[in-house]
Design brief:
By secondary structure, this protein is an alpha/beta fold. The protein is 37% helix and 14% strand. The protein has a domain of 217 residues: Amidase signature (AS) enzymes. Strands 1-3-2-4-6-5-10-11-9-7-8 form an eleven-stranded mixed β-sheet, with helices on both faces. It is globular. The two termini are 25 Å apart.
Length: 472
């Protein structure tokens, strides 16, 4: 059931928030032991909130799952890491949580994730594997894999995730749900545990495009507690969502349809583009020439920022603290050795290296220059088109463990999502049929829609039109 449908049932008196949450808890107990999307959920607190829900509010009484790197008052916030496990309970609400509550929503459940959001499979969680509901032998994507899997599995009506290089859109694609990454600065990051501060954004994972618009409406806007938020009016995202695509200029970049794309993914996406053209959209060939450098650029900038952000985890102020250190330096070493997993350590080491004396200009400065070129590519493209369409990922969900010994293959899987984060533009994934891959049938494919800065309204409009189509 979508959020829009559930809200209508509330208003019609067919059910209550308490009944919906109780039923949701039953579904979690039945389904989640196999899927592993939830790290925890506080049923008593949710039922208490449901009893006092104000149904006149836009999200009144609607339960929404929260990725476990977004602080929620009196709830754990482990970031999928042993460093914060059982050692940290949030003393405050992130701005997005405050806004959800003000809109009447009920935060319910902490969703599994790759440790500190570093990963594309949710295999890097310190606690458990999350499995794709469409095939339990496959990844749900990452790092917001718990959020996407729960929505796909029917154990969450909707959820929040975070997207640093595709961590909302890629799991949405693999799980067959809607995932939206807003423009950088459209949604406050206050209360989001930082991975890479110039790339991170919070956004919704939902069953429908209408639900994504509903949540974005609630969480968007300027925040004095986050100096990077944009002081720009928030439009009514649902007002023009049903206007269709007649006359909309859709850009198709050759760089997003090159080698390495699974034939089923290409066929589904190209078929959907032809269908939109049949509805009156204008297809415009474009070029984004610096796309090939996006992954390398990202894996300099993101680890560099991560190595700085994660320096606060020192075993002194909060989180894991090593027993019996010899001195303060040994405390740092032991606490981080015990607290961080291998992928986090890998990225901290890489980030520290590219920022070190003698290598800063060769790597970090050069990466920032390439980032500017990628941003310029999009700026030029959006002078000719309204949105850009592409696959979300080159392939459907792979098998669990397939890239354990070759993390570079996982890094390359984000080639189509990373550029949007580097440029700060909005992007979303919409289900685009299913295909066969690596011995399995009916695996979801995602259509990616990219828009210019603050172009979420047009992006949602195109997404709604694409959502209503069935592949031949």
């Amino acid at each position: 059931m979508s959020l829009v449908t559930l809200r209508r049932r509330y208003l019609d008196g067919e059910t209550t928030p308490s009944e919906a949450i109780a039923k949701l808890a039953e579904e979690i107990a039945s389904r989640d032991p196999r899927t592993g999307a939830y790290l925890s959920h506080d049923l008593d607190l949710a039922l208490k909130s449901a009893a006092g829900a104000d149904l006149s509010k836009p999200l009144g009484g609607l339960p929404i799952g929260i990725k476990d790197n977004i602080n929620t008052l009196a709830q754990p916030c482990s970031c999928g890491s042993n460093f914060l496990a059982k050692k940290y309970t949030s003393p405050y609400d992130a701005t997005v949580i405050r806004k959800l509550k003000e809109a009447g929503a009920i935060p319910f459940g902490r969703m599994n994730m790759d440790e500190f959001a570093m990963g594309s499979a949710t295999e890097n969680s310190a606690f458990q594997l999350t499995r794709n509901p469409h095939d339990h032998d496959r990844i749900p994507g990452g790092s917001s894999g718990g959020s996407a899997a729960a929505v796909a599995d029917g154990t969450a009506f909707a959820a929040l995730g975070s997207d640093t290089g595709g961590s909302i859109r890629q799991p949405a694609s693999h799980c067959g749900v809607v995932g939206l990454k807003p423009t950088y600065g459209r949604v406050s990051r206050f209360g989001l545990v930082a991975f890479a501060s110039s790339l991170d954004q919070i956004g919704p994972l939902t069953r429908t495009v209408d639900d994504a618009a509903l949540i974005l409406q609630a969480i968007a806007g300027h925040d004095p507690q986050d100096s990077t938020t944009l002081d720009a009016p928030v439009p009514d995202y649902s007002a023009q969502i049903d206007l269709g695509v007649k006359g909309v200029r859709i850009g198709i970049a050759q760089e997003y349809f090159g080698e390495g794309i699974h034939p089923g993914v290409r066929e589904n996406v190209e078929s959907r583009i032809r269908q939109l053209e049949g509805l009156g959209a204008v297809i415009v060939p474009i070029s984004l020439p610096h796309t090939e450098h996006a992954v390398a650029t990202y894996y300099v900038i993101a680890p560099a920022e991560a190595s700085s952000n994660l320096s606060r985890f020192d075993g002194i102020r909060y989180g894991n603290r090593a027993p019996n250190p010899a001195d303060i330096i040994d405390l740092y070493h032991q606490s981080r050795e015990l607290g961080f997993g291998p992928e986090v350590k890998r990225r901290i080491i890489l980030g520290t290296y590219v920022l070190s004396s003698g290598y800063y200009d060769a790597y970090y400065t050069r990466a920032q220059k390439v980032r500017a070129l990628i941003t310029r590519d999009f700026k030029h493209a959006f002078e000719a088109v309204d949105v850009i369409l592409s696959p979300v990922a080159p392939t459907p969900a792979r098998k669990i463990g397939a890239c354990t010994d070759d993390p570079l293959q996982d890094y390359l899987a984000d080639i189509f999502t990373i550029p949007a984060n580097l440029a700060g533009i909005p992007g979303m994934s919409v289900p685009c049929g299913t295909t066969s891959f690596d011995g399995a049938d009916n695996l979801p494919v995602g259509l990616q829609i990219l828009a210019p800065h603050l172009g979420e309204a047009m992006m949602l409009r195109v997404a709604k039109a694409a959502e209503g189509l069935s592949l031949p």
